[in-house]
């Protein structure tokens, strides 16, 4: 019950924080990863999605403690960054990552594609501050190549399907108090839903293995 109350308080704080939304006029249909299909992206760092990141960005497509990895491709000082969030075979690849035209993943030199269910690729030029924070969280106090000079590049964020929560009693049956808290939490989310992270899809095209979404989203919090 104590954990549920803490979760409730965290949700209230998260929902009450204001977010900025990108204006429709700033939308640019753009996906930086697609032109670099078949390039081998090197592993830069790996991390765990923190509560601070969740509170700042309210990203409903991932969760606190979700693993993530960042891969990169350097073309004459111009970086293509690829962030993969949530548990998937990508998280267990400690070599390079390669994608083909159908957005299948290949680890290292293997020609057998990784099975990554529920993939979504989010492509937008204004993702960079989010990626900067993810970079800082997983590289500190290490690789400073992205922080000692002003670097140039683009980024794509990949979301694998979120893992289901394993909260609850051993029997899988929640007590009355827990159900009551959940009902209160649901009402709070309904009342404050205008402040939650929302993704407005402006354009999408389907690949065999994934959906590529160009989005407008509140990426910053005040």
Automatic annotation (TrEMBL):
Keywords (A to Z) from UniProt: Signal
Source organism superkingdom: Eukaryota
Signal peptide: 1-21
Protein name stated in the entry: Methuselah N-terminal domain-containing protein
Organism: Drosophila erecta
Gene it is expressed from: Dere\GG26768
């Amino acid at each position: 019950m104590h954990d549920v109350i803490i979760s409730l308080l965290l949700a209230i704080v998260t929902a009450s924080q204001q977010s900025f939304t990108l204006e429709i006029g700033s939308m640019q249909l753009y996906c930086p990863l697609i032109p670099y299909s078949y390039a081998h992206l090197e592993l830069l760092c790996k991390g765990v999605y923190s509560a601070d990141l969740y509170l700042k960005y309210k990203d409903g497509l991932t969760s606190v403690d979700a693993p993530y990895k960042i891969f990169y491709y350097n073309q004459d000082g111009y970086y293509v960054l690829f962030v993969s969030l949530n548990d998937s075979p990508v998280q267990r690849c400690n070599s390079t990552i390669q994608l083909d035209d159908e957005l299948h993943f290949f680890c290292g030199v293997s020609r057998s594609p990784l099975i990554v269910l529920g993939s979504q690729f989010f492509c937008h030029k204004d993702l960079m501050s989010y990626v900067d924070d993810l970079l800082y969280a997983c590289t500190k106090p290490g690789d400073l190549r992205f922080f000692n000079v002003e670097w140039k590049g683009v980024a794509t964020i990949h979301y694998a399907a979120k893992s289901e929560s394993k909260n609850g009693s051993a029997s899988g049956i929640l007590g009355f108090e827990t159900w009551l808290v959940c009902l209160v939490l649901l009402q709070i989310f309904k009342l404050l839903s205008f402040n939650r992270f929302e993704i407005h899809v402006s354009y999408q095209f389907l690949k065999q293995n994934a959906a590529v979404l160009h989005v407008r989203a509140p990426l910053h919090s005040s």
